[in-house]
């Protein structure tokens, strides 16, 4: 209870269909490396149903099947240390099941061959032969299973599944990232689904319905960065962000290109974030050009989306996974940490080129999941009273001065990106920072 009250971060178990699939595929992936014998044993016993069906129930092994004394101990560790505890316990269950079912004369081997390994594991958990202490000792004695590795497998799996769900169309410029762009037809399908849900929820169908981009209601926000006019102060285009139920201005000469840009950016966000309502936290147009003001308005929000428009009308930015307040955190020696953030951070460019640049660690493990990235490729975010930096190692992807007026961009090891504007140096016309209400 003390950990729950003191926690600065919410710890929720996965709540979407996609992320549920990501979690069990993550368990399957880490089991192949850190519980190899148990994973191979499970594969042999799974037979025609395949191991995927078995791993899909992994959360229920813990939450539904474990005896209450075991569950109490597991949840106690979960509240204190986070979701990695569940992954370790799931692997511990596989290891213990392997130990007790290897002998073909054992009751658990007989149960698996008679009723299926899925029923056998469920029954094994309900009649757990190991004490709570032994279960946790087995879980936490798995060597080299770091949170960083779990996070890297999780993010890579999410990106892979997400990219498979989106179809590339001819009308949109293709992204250089692994997340392909949706076709105009898929946007229409989403619009129709949103319309149907609105009627189902009891609302009256409007006259000519404005274009919808999702199925969850969202409030309107304005952006001056994505207006194509020469100056953000002239001919301001009021638009709605392409988050669920987003609606665009009637100025049709701009709306098509804006929809494409915004829908592209929307498709790049982590799926769980798309459930939350975007809120404009800071803009240089209203709040002035000062890092002090920036920190006051932004630093306690997580995640945030930064968008920059230069005086040459280039538009780029970054999705920042961690609070900017982390710049004040100190290590065990009392020194302020230089860099912070996680591999969910990514860069993007919207104009003149549309491209996403994810963390290099997301692809570093292709075919070699245990491959480590260099420390210089894990420099996500840095900030102090004089500057803000996103991306590091052999250069800085985005750097801005304390007056939020001048900046520079270069290739960096963290994202392996080209400079986000041709000249490398830029003058900031507008900076906007968005948070997500409830995230």
Automatic annotation (TrEMBL):
Keywords: Cytoplasmic vesicle, Membrane, Synapse
Membrane topology reported for the UniProt record: Peripheral membrane protein
Protein's name in the database: TLDc domain-containing protein
Pfam families (UniProt xref): RabGAP-TBC, TLD
GO cellular component terms, semicolon-separated: cytoplasmic vesicle membrane; endomembrane system; synapse
TLDc domain segment(s): 261-437
The UniProt record lists the keyword Membrane: yes
Alphabetized InterPro entries for the sequence: Rab-GAP-TBC_dom, Rab-GAP_TBC_sf, TLDc_dom
Species per Swiss-Prot/TrEMBL record: Pieris macdunnoughi
Annotated SUPFAM superfamilies: Ypt/Rab-GAP domain of gyp1p
Localization in the cell: Cytoplasmic vesicle membrane; Endomembrane system; Synapse
């Amino acid at each position: 209870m003390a950990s729950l009250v003191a926690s600065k971060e919410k710890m929720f178990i996965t709540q979407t269909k996609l992320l549920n699939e990501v979690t069990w595929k993550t368990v399957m992936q880490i089991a192949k490396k850190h519980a190899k014998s148990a994973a191979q044993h499970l594969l042999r016993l799974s037979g025609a149903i395949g191991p995927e069906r078995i791993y899909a129930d992994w959360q229920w092994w813990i939450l539904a099947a474990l005896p209450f004394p075991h569950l109490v101990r597991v949840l106690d560790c979960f509240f204190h240390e986070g979701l990695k505890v569940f992954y370790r316990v799931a692997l511990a269950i596989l290891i213990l099941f392997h130990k007790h079912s290897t002998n073909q004369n054992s009751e658990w081997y007989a149960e698996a061959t008679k009723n299926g390994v899925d029923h056998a594991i469920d029954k094994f958990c309900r009649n757990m032969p190991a004490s709570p202490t032994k279960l946790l000792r087995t879980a936490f004695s798995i060597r080299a299973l770091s949170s960083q590795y779990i996070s890297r497998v999780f993010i890579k799996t999410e990106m892979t599944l997400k990219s498979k769900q989106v179809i590339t169309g001819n009308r949109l410029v293709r992204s250089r990232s692994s997340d392909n762009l949706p076709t105009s037809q898929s946007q229409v399908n989403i619009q129709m689904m949103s319309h149907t849900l609105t009627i189902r929820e009891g609302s009256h169908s409007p006259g000519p319905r404005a274009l919808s981009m999702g199925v969850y209601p969202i409030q309107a926000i304005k952006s001056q960065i994505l207006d194509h006019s020469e100056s953000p102060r002239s001919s301001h285009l009021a638009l709605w962000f392409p988050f669920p139920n987003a609606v665009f201005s009637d100025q049709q000469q701009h709306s098509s290109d804006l929809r494409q840009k915004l829908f592209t950016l929307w498709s790049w966000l982590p799926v769980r974030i798309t459930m939350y309502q975007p809120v404009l936290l800071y803009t240089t147009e209203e709040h002035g050009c000062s890092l002090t003001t920036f920190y006051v308005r932004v630093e306690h929000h997580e995640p945030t989306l930064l968008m920059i428009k230069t005086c040459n009308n280039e538009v780029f930015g970054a999705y920042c996974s961690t609070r900017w307040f982390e710049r004040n955190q100190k290590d065990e020696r009392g020194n302020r940490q230089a860099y912070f953030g996680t591999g969910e951070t990514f860069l993007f460019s919207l104009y003149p080129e549309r491209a996403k640049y994810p963390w290099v660690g997301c692809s570093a493990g292709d075919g070699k999941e245990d491959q480590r990235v260099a420390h210089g490729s894990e420099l996500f975010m840095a900030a102090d009273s004089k500057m803000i930096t996103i991306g590091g190692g052999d250069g800085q992807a985005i750097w801005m001065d304390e007056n939020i007026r001048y900046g520079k961009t270069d290739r960096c090891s963290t994202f392996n990106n080209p400079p986000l504007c041709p000249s490398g140096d830029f003058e900031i016309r507008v900076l906007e920072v968005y948070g997500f209400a409830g995230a």
